[in-house]
Design goal:
about 280 residues; alpha/beta; TIM Barrel; eight-stranded parallel beta sheet
């Protein structure tokens, strides 16, 4: 059986400080130890750590990830970069030497338009090194990517959280689901784009409504557009734990009647493992 691989987790020094159980007075969380225990219980061989430094409490997240990357061989971090401050080649090379295998970008409130100001040398470097570009964005933001991808169609863009379609309490009709994901499914023509099936608690109302049948029509649209070989399971650890148990972030795929066992194996492990294997890493010293 293919081992599992998690395409979307976070690791923070002292735990996640959002509106989460780890923010409660007296609570201290070691994210690395916690996830290591969970992934051991559920046969997760690798995890893509999505860096985030967009708030004051986690401003040093890249530095923290650089410190913990060598603790376990399942840790594969993507360095957070602000869209307003694109990294230079020297910075990317430094990230690479520190053990990063990609970058993490957050695009909201029209920020995606700033992508057009990034020099092509950045995209060329990312493309050449097979780095993963993990992006969080609302559905409007995806419409800014075709300009980049037309020049770099092999760029390995990972769309987080199904592209963040509108939350719903009931399964939308197929036409409604298709319209909500149009800017995401339009990217399927670019071979390097994959979509993370993550954050289901954020698109189903209520968030604890496992197995999130309200979001299944979105998944069906993504399967039709991308095929199961470009879809990736992501737990969204640790925020997911405020709504769900860790295994519930995985087991919902077994319940989707439009996925077979081969699809589930690819989504929950094989696809991400192949992407990670292709990353060009520094030569051993």
């Amino acid at each position: 059986m293919t081992q599992r691989a998690d395409a979307h987790i976070h690791l923070f020094d002292g735990g996640y400080r959002g509106q989460s159980f780890s923010s409660r007075p007296g609570v201290s969380i070691d994210d690395v130890a916690c996830y290591d225990s969970l992934r051991g219980d559920h046969d997760v061989a690798a995890a893509l750590i999505v860096g985030f430094s967009g708030a004051q409490w986690c401003g040093d997240n890249n530095q923290y990830l650089a410190r913990v990357v060598g603790l376990h061989d399942w840790i594969h971090p993507a360095a957070y970069v602000s869209v307003d401050s694109p990294p230079g080649i020297e910075q990317l090379e430094e990230f690479r030497q520190q053990g990063f295998i990609g970058i993490s970008i957050y695009l909201y409130d029209g920020q995606s338009k700033t992508l057009a100001t990034w020099p092509d040398e950045i995209w060329s470097w990312l493309d050449e090194h097979n780095w993963l570009v993990s992006v969080n964005s609302d559905t409007d933001g995806w419409s800014s990517w075709p300009g980049v991808l037309a020049r770099f169609p092999e760029l390995r863009l990972l769309v987080s959280h199904l592209g963040e379609p509108p939350p719903t309490g009931l399964p939308p009709e197929p036409d409604t689901a298709a319209a909500a994901l149009q800017t995401v499914t339009d990217l399927a023509r670019f071979r390097g784009v994959s979509v993370k099936l993550s954050g289901f608690y954020a698109i189903s109302d209520p968030g604890h409504d496992y197995p999130h049948q309200a979001g299944w029509p979105y998944v069906e649209q993504l399967v039709t557009a991308f095929g199961s070989d470009r879809l990736l399971w992501g737990s969204d650890f640790p925020p997911c734990l405020d709504c769900l148990s860790f295994p519930q972030t995985i087991d919902l795929f077994d319940k989707m009647p439009f996925l077979d066992l081969k699809d589930v194996a690819a989504i929950t492990g094989g696809n991400l493992l192949a992407l990670l294997d292709a990353v060009r890493r520094p030569d051993p010293a």
